Amino acid sequence: MAPPSGHSLLLTSALGIFILHCFTRGQKNSTLIFTKENIIRNCSCSADVQDCDYSLANLMCSCKTVLPFAIEQTSYDGHLTIWFTDTSALGLLLNFTLVRDLKLSLCGTNTLPTEYLAICGLKRLRINAKARGPSLEQSLLIYNNGESEPREKIMLLHKGWQTCMYISFLDMALFNRKSSLKAYSIENVASIANTFPYFSYFETIPILSNKSYVVTFIY
């Protein structure tokens, strides 16, 4: 049998490159943010990275250092994973930020305070506390209406602010417990400030008086 010609090899190579390009183009990178020793790294990853493996993340993902005072309000339509050792930077990263699919991995052994994060449009939450010993990842589906909610129904732009219509309050002290994730929601909340007067978040975030909200507590 005659060996393949140079032309055939060239066509085969070109076909392989085309298939690889189509495959990688079809994949959507996920965002990984990790905080360690007062440093925040924002990474774009084409594949999952084992929780809390900082060296592997820097090797496999495209990462950049972000200064805390340079963090701007943004949104995440895809998967967002955050590795953290304490709650100091989580408020900057997550409070009133649109995140549909969130994974939080605790990479330290510190006891976390009863501190709430306010997250917009959260559909699925996963948590892991691998640093505290072998533990199963927990997952919680907040809501699933079959179709993604239009962005304009979840967040409204109001005088330069993004105002949440779906708000999830996440109690960070849940990482101290071994119980299962739980949640309950309150729909058609007309006045968040009056309904939840003890949450100081709403003193600085504009709340629209002519809209109703869906508020979920995760604990």
How many strands appear in the DSSP assignment? 13
Number of helices: 5
- Note the overall shape: globular
Distance between the termini: 68 Å
Instruction: Compute the CA-based radius of gyration.
Output: 21 Å
**How would a textbook summarize the main sheet?**
11 strands, mixed
Query: How much of the residues is beta strand, in percent?
Result: 35-45%
Mean pLDDT: 78
Number of domains: 1
Percent helix, as a range, is: 10-25%
Structural class: alpha/beta
Structure commentary:
The strands form 2 sheets. Strands 1, 2, 3, 4, 5, 6, 7, 8, 11, 12 and 13 form an 11-stranded mixed beta sheet that branches. The chain has a two-stranded antiparallel sheet with strand order 9-10. The longest helix has 21 residues. By secondary structure, the protein is α/β, with parallel strands linked by helices. The chain has one domain. The protein is globular and about 50 Å long. 19% of the residues lie in helices and 37% in strands.
